[in-house]
């Protein structure tokens, strides 16, 4: 018998190109997050993170949520949902205000004002703010301040990271989730959510780039000195490799996906040239025997292209040579053999595969790079469950909960 979800139960909904995953967690009094339900469903209405068929997306959401509800024994009402797609853009901005009150003491109202001023940038009508993330505060030219409340100063500056997305893409995600009978608590950029699950504070401090290699897109988030500095989305992912295999080996796409998952390797030099695989034919044609190295030789150029585009994106920033903690790969494609080794060759940096951490409960079900975003959404939700965070596309006004939101972001990013 199911019951309604309690206030301490959080649901993350990962809307991917290849799969939709619902993860239900319970927050204990001791602060521990326990996974109590996991549900997945093939994603049939999304392409590259964008809704292209509303009804199919709704059906996929319903299936994933129902599976998670059955496992957890609760009925879900609201979710923290991920958003991605190559429509995502980000900029860094700075706001400056004068502190005029007696004694020049900086208050929470000043924080809200300076962040409001920082996000007052020119944005096209078809785009909307998804996140405004504080990076640091500057009081009278003193940099690197985490929380200036209570300090004395006459000039307060804020460095913020602004993430924007296409209004229609966000609206379609909202519509899909609402038609599935759920309420959207917040819309969260997927690589930002994944960072909650796979990155340590030390990595964010030293400098690290997170690459979430999904089916339709590769999402990038760069951290330095404890805060997010750059985000980007590349419109290539694991599905591109699947299509390459289908064409190169003349096999149906479903079989190409199976071959990629079972035998794929991103670095052909790691494959034994004597190893062979059976490739099903198209339209009833007989299956053929092919060297596994041939399969790898098809996959490697595509993955190398994705990493090269990601490297080009990182080099647009001033932090490309400061990533002491290297690269963290996550997402479904990160599970493929040879991904870390190929990435090390391309980036010339240490690379590791990011597996969700920081949660208890059904850990065997989520200890997989494919669930990094889902678990991250739950952890984000735990930090922001009493407000609407920094989502600009939610119905709540961006700064209705500004002070509470600022406190939570400080706690996470510093």
TrEMBL record:
It is a peripheral membrane protein. GO terms for biological process: FtsZ-dependent cytokinesis. It is found in: Cell membrane. Residues 10-198 form the SHS2 domain. The keyword Cell division applies. Keywords: Cell cycle, Cell division, Cell membrane, Membrane. Pfam families: FtsA, SHS2_FTSA. InterPro entries: ATPase_NBD, Cell_div_FtsA, FtsA/MreB, SHS2_FtsA. Its main location: membrane. The keyword Membrane applies. It comes from the Bacteria. Belongs to the FtsA/MreB family. Cell division protein that is involved in the assembly of the Z ring. May serve as a membrane anchor for the Z ring. NCBIfam families: ftsA. Self-interacts. Interacts with FtsZ. This is Cell division protein FtsA.
